[in-house]
Each structure stands twice: as C-alpha cells, then as structure tokens.
Amino acid sequence: MAGALEGLKVLDLSRVLAGPWCTQMLADLGADVVKVEKPGEGDDTRQWGPPFVRDARGEPTTQSTYFLACNRNKRSLTLDIATPEGQALVRQMAARSDVLVENFKVGGLRKYGLDYDSLKAINPRLIYCSITGFGQDGPYAQRAGYDLMIQAMSGMMSITGRPDGEAGGGPLRVGVAITDLFTGLYAANAILAALNVRDNAHSGTGQGQHIDMALLDVGMAVLANQATAYLNTGEIPQRQGNSHPSLAPYQDFPTADGAMLLAIGNDGQFQRFCVAAGQPDWANDPRYASNTLRVRHREVLIPLLSALTRTRRTADWVALLGDQAVPCGPINDIGAAFADAQVQARGLRLSQPCSPAARTQLQVDAFHTVASPLRLAATPPVLRHAPPLLGEHTDQVLAELGLDPARIAALRQAGVV
C-alpha cells in the first residue's frame, strides 16, 4: 500500500534526534528518505550505548538501541561532504529532492556550497529545513544547543520534579529528550505546510522555502499552560511533583500495593469518584463543590484521599473507577506498559526483519521499535526498511544517481563514500 507521502524524496543530513525524528515521521508516511552519514562513523547515536541490541546468544552487538528509535524506513548512504566529490553528490541529490533536513551549526554548510541559497539556485522547489539550538539569528545563534541545555534554559526543568522542601526536591529533566522530540514533530509539520504552499492545486507557488527550527523556540512553546500562566499573571510557576497547578485531584496516590494515578478533570468525575469510593458526603462538601475550590483546598483534600486510596490495591481501584468513567490507572514501568492489553491490541510493539547484511553482521533477526501513532485509515504508515546499517544503501543510492560500479568503487577507494 502506498503511503500518504509516496513519491516524496527527502535528503536527510541530520543526526542525533530532532532531525532524525522528523525524517522518520516522513519516512513512516511513505517518503523516500536517504540518510547521509559520515564514512566510518555515521550518526552519533550509533555509538550511544549501552544498551546495545543483543544477538541470538544474548550478547551485546555494536548496534545501539538509541539509533533504532529514530531511523527506521530510511536508506543509509555514507558520504564525506567535506570533499568536493561528496559535495557534488549532495548537490546532485538535492536537485532531485523535495525536502532537505539538516542540523549543522548556523552557516556550517555554507563553506561546502550546501546552504539554502546555494541549493535553491539548483532546485527552487526544494524545502530546506534547518534545525539548530537557537535559530538562525539572535545573540545565541552560533551556540551549540542540546536538549538538556534547552530543558534548563527554557524553564522546563524548573517545573519538573518535587518542590525544594520535599525529599528528592529540585529541578529535573524529563525522562526523554522532550525538546528534541517536539522539535522533530514541529519540523515535520512545518515541512508538510511548506509542501502545501508549494503544491496546492489552487494557490501553490511552485517554490520551496527555508524553515528555521530552533530547539529554544520549541522549548518555550511546549511550556503551554505554564507559560501562559506566567505571561498573564506575572506569577512564576513552581515545581509540585505529580500534582497539577490547575486541577485537583490530579496526581499519584498510594494504594495497598503501590501507587496509582487519579486524573479527575471535571466535577462530574469527582462526584462519581466519591460515590464509588463510599464517600458521597465529599461530593456535597462546599469546599470541594468545584474544581477551583478543590484546588484551593487541596491541602485538606489530598491527605483525605491518600488515606482512602491506601485501603485497596491498585488493580481494585482501576476496576472500580473504570466502570464509573473516572480516569484512573496504574503507574507502569516500560515493561509493564508494553505488556498492557490495550498497548498490545494497538500493535505498538513493532518488529522489523533485519536485512541480510544486518543478520550476517550482527546475528540478529529483527529490530524492535515503537509503531507510529499516526493511524490514517486510507494511507497508514508504511514499513519498508528496518533501521539501516551504516552505509547499507550506498551503492543503491549512487546507482540511482547514474554512477556505475567502477565509479562507486573509485569513490570508496578515495574515502569519499
């Protein structure tokens, strides 16, 4: 089945996470993504481990699990863009591409003649997406940016974690590189918008454009309600663990055998909770009659709830409240999450057979990743390639450019590919 982006050609000069996350999304939707990697080294994340994939004997291979997270459905081409021959090949591919994604430092590709203005002259239809830490302008434009740094600078860490006065209090990073991931998603959205501007049957310009994505911009944007709370009140949001600044009860609670998550978002849910839990008087208490009042009196309400939730096991609460349409669930580790019946029913564990080369080199039959959450009824995500070995498709891609085996061999001998 053809994917939604069938026929779209993407040249991926990015590495690590934000750019590869963007291009994997495009690849899952059917785009032909060629990932350009440095010969002998490849994407930085190929070496980010442990953990590494285990072979049939249970021994670690040289394949990092990090790389698998964001590089399926792509073809890997090794190419040294610091050489004139490598630059010429990139220009040749750019002339045939719809989209180019890169995350070099600002101006880093200009010295190679691979910046937007240079490639626009070759292919005016090219959509060129640059991903940097701080954007193409401003006093920090030349600085390198990493997710952890942006989580700190944007204020994300200041609202993540327990308050300073509690055990374990202090700022924390989110457990995944959330700024990189959101930047990849925003970048993919911007690319799709630019494609529409270029190709729209009614108003298309026929022209590509430059997209300037900055991790800092995204880090500020995803502060969402916390940012608007500050901007409209002048009050700086504080860390408060797993509780919510604007909802109550909306946090973790202890149970007889561990903990659970209770996420009550409206008054009806609170009333149904009180009845199901055997405390109907709480629903009629004027201190808890509305969400605003429950937030105002959370110092009284939360201890009462905690004492009550300790009287049953997590599974018992989930069964009881699920029947009453009260949002409640376990706090799973990742293993338990993948074992969950709903996760399994949705097919969220994805296994892709390795290529013959990967089987031979790594002694691994399949790579396992998380399925795309994009569920298009008519054009669902397409599975074509497991995450590639370094340079696995070099000969194939160069042959598509018209290079014969002798020319490819000469480039390999010279270290260009």
TrEMBL record:
Q: Name one Pfam family in it.
A: CoA_transf_3
Give a yes or no for keyword Transferase in this entry. Answer: yes
What is a GO molecular function of this protein?
Answer: CoA-transferase activity
Q: Which UniProt keywords apply?
A: Transferase
Name the UniProt record assigns to this protein: Formyl-CoA transferase
| Organism of origin | Hylemonella gracilis ATCC 19624
